[in-house]
Structures are given as structure tokens and as C-alpha cells.
Amino acid sequence: MFMKHRVQEIAPDALRRYMADRAERDYVLIDVRQPQEYEQEHLPGAVLISVSELEGKLGTLNPEQDHIFYCRSGARSMAAAMLAEDSRLLRGQVFSLQGGILAWGGGALADYPRVDVFSGIDSIRGMLLKALELEKAAHELYRQVRAVVKRDVMCDLMDTLIGVEIAHARVVYSYLGKYWNDGSQPIPPFETMFDALQGKVLEGGLTVDELQPWIRGAAQGDCLELADLALEVEMNAYDLYRTLARNAAQGDVPGFALGKDAEPVFLDLATQEKHHTRLIMSRIRAFEETGA
């Protein structure tokens, strides 16, 4: 008698609900396509393990997590999910995304997560200082857009996002205080440190300066266009922190070893970014319904 597979197909909308309701530590999203496909477009937070390499890397997966596999249309991911399930190494649920990324319907990212923005940093304290700079850059972007937009609904969204970035920066600052370890002087007050940051580079690698033409045109841009850019900013941030958390857990952050104590820090920051994306998506739905 053949053993019945526990692999479940999961529809895109069901996966979105699943990801919204789960803690980041509970699951991993695995792209089983080729590197060039991942670079062209991937789901935020996904790790790349090509289907041809999966068997040799099953031992690196956390057996307690749920694993969601996806590919272009669903065929490769189902094969990968069945291989993972048959290995009996995974105790969590195994899913395959029904219809693959073709059925996802928007909200994917190009390029690899920009972990290179942390290049040359050799401690979790240094990474948190850089994370604080990235938050300042997003804050500065939204502040500059707020200064030029005229529509009340967009002013409200930008005001909300400015407040969100301040709140998230305070979360980063609270972690930074735990890793400050500077016997010569205490950590400066949050306001002093945040105000002194230049905030030039966003999590996706773009700079606020590079976005100046877009910012100047924001006064004429429609609500959906502006909200879409904000969504991309927050998805890139989620993608980055999710990747850093996984790298820290596996001890393979390029250039240095953070230790596994860094994993929950970056998972928490990823969770915050995921909440930001949900906030923006709710506004996008409202704009679509009202024609704003």
C-alpha cells in the first residue's frame, strides 16, 4: 500500500492569509526555480533552493517549521514538496503553492535581498546601527513625499507611514541598547541618535537621492502609484530582514558570524515590516474601491 502524502496544495489567497496569521519563525517559503528566475521575480521572504539542489539541502531545513514550496506554475514545487515529505526529515506541514508565482497576482520582488547594504559590518551592534539608518531613509522618503502631495488621503497615508517608521526605529533602538556594550559612554537618547542619521539608502538598495524625480512628481501622481512605491519599500525591508534571520540561524551571513541570537532580532524586525505591508495593502484596497 502506498503511503498517502501529507503535501497540501495551497491557493495564493490562502497562503497570504496563512503568512499574515503565522509568526515568522513558524514557516519558511522556498523558491525551487533557477537563480535567474528568482532574480527576475520572487516572493518576499523566500529562500532560493533550486529543485535540483533540494535533496542535498534537506538536512539544512528546520524540521519543526512548515515549508511552503513554489515555482513558476506549480509543477516543480509539487515535486519538491513530495521529495521533502518523503524524506521524513520534516515534522511540520509541507505545502505547494497552487499555480506557482504565475497565480500569485502581484506583490513579488526583483533581484536578490540586498544584504550587501550590511557589507563590512562585523557585529550585531553594527547591523542594528545600519538598520536604524535604513529606517531613517524610509522615514525621510515618506516625509519628503508628504511635503509635496496635496490629496488628503495621501497626506493621511504618509503621516501614518512616518509614524510607523519612527515606531519601528524605536524597536531597532531597543535592541541596539541590549548590544551597545560601550563601557566608555551610554547609548545616546533615541531622538539624538535618530536625528543625527543621514538616512540615504533604503532596504532595497535605492537611495532617497535616486528617488528625487519620483518624489517631485508625487504631487501629480495618483494614490495607487504612491501606495505601490511605499508597498515596494516595505516588502524589500521584509525580504531583507527575513533573509538576515535565516542567514543568522544557519551561521552563513557573508563576511562574519552573528550567532543564532541574532535570528529572533531579525525575525522580529521582519514581522514589523510585514505589518507595514498589510497596512499599505489595506489602503490600496480602499483606493481601488473608491477610485481615489
UniProtKB/TrEMBL annotation:
PROSITE patterns: RHODANESE_1 (PS00380), RHODANESE_3 (PS50206). InterPro entries: Ferritin-like, Ferritin-like_SF, GlpE_sulfurtransferase, Rhodanese-like_dom, Rhodanese-like_dom_sf, Thiosulphate_STrfase_CS. The keyword Membrane does not apply. CDD domains: RHOD. Keywords: Transferase. GO terms for molecular function: thiosulfate-cyanide sulfurtransferase activity. Residues 23-113 form the Rhodanese domain. This is Sulfurtransferase. It comes from Desulfovibrio psychrotolerans.
